[in-house]
């Protein structure tokens, strides 16, 4: 049986998809849009578009189909666990591991690995049990995952409220100057290629902050903090200012030294959802990135 939720809007001039995602943080915005398009989310008893602007007092009816848990099989995929408690785990994701099933990647994902390690997630259900944020398939490093629906909702809210500090190590082509800077440029779908993102006037707000760690001949190693979590944000922002990420074939060019994009989730700080304790973790560069970096010539 589908789960039915009825909400009364407490906000005005807010998109329906954004409002519903905020109320059900365990469900992705893309999934929310699917439900809206399929007529499973209604405003005052009528179907609406994802972009429909709701008003204070509107009644939002949400009908959630049974969780497609049968499509998410548990798999014995090994994970490097940095930290673990009853509510969450912090993993060091290897490159090549997709976060969750998608067209072309029905299994062998981080979600399948989580269900194998934490079978209680299957019982909790949800669209993507345990997943509160994602890293690109070829990005390595730290991720936090939830072990219960309650923890998932709480951690998702921290990401939404921008209370989570996310810092990456990134190598780019060229000499980045000045040594510190902030990039504020909206990101949306590329107008000519729907598989890519781009800086666009009608995109969603995006903010990144960088600092030079070291210069190499032809390259710069950066520490990048992102304040928003847009798809491909770091890669798009840096390419937009003329410094494409090394090894990034989508927004830059192929590299003989780096078989994948040089982006590593280096530091992650957030609050334990139940105790309120501040947690912070660090992951050193993945071996393949370290090997490529060792072949570069550092500059004084």
TrEMBL record:
Class of this enzyme: isomerase
Tagged with keyword Cell membrane: no
Residues forming the catalytic site: 136
Gene Ontology biological process: enzyme-directed rRNA pseudouridine synthesis
Function: Responsible for synthesis of pseudouridine from uracil.
Matching PANTHER family: MITOCHONDRIAL RNA PSEUDOURIDINE SYNTHASE, RIBOSOMAL LARGE SUBUNIT PSEUDOURIDINE SYNTHASE D
The name this protein goes by in its record: Pseudouridine synthase
């Amino acid at each position: 049986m589908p789960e039915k939720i009825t909400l009364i809007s407490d906000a005005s001039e807010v998109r329906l998809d954004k409002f519903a995602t905020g109320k059900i943080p365990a469900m992705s915005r893309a999934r929310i849009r699917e439900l809206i398009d399929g007529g499973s989310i209604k405003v005052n008893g009528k179907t609406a578009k994802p972009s429909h602007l709701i008003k204070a007092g509107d009644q939002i009816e949400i009908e959630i189909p049974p969780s497609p848990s049968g499509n998410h099989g548990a798999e014995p995929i090994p994970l490097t666990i940095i930290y673990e408690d009853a509510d969450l785990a912090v993993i060091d994701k290897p490159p090549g591991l997709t976060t969750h099933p998608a067209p072309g990647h029905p299994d062998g994902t981080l979600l399948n690995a989580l269900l194998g390690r934490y079978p209680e997630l299957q019982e909790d259900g949800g669209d993507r049990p345990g997943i509160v944020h994602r890293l690109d398939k070829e990005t390595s490093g730290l991720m936090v995952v939830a072990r219960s629906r309650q923890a998932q909702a709480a951690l998702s809210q921290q990401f939404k409220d921008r209370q989570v500090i996310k810092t990456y190590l990134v190598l780019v082509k060229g000499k980045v100057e000045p040594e510190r800077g902030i990039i504020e440029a909206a990101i949306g779908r590329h107008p000519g290629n729907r598989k890519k993102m781009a800086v666009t006037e009608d995109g969603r707000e995006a903010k990144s902050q960088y600092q030079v760690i070291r210069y190499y001949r032809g390259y710069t190693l950066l520490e990048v903090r992102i304040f928003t979590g847009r798809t491909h944000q770091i890669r798009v922002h840096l390419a937009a200012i003329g410094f494409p990420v090394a090894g990034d074939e989508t927004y830059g060019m192929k590299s003989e030294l780096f078989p994948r994009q040089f982006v590593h989730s280096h530091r992650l700080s957030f609050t334990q959802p139940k105790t309120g304790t501040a947690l912070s973790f660090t992951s050193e560069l993945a071996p393949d990135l370290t090997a490529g970096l060792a072949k570069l010539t550092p500059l004084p």
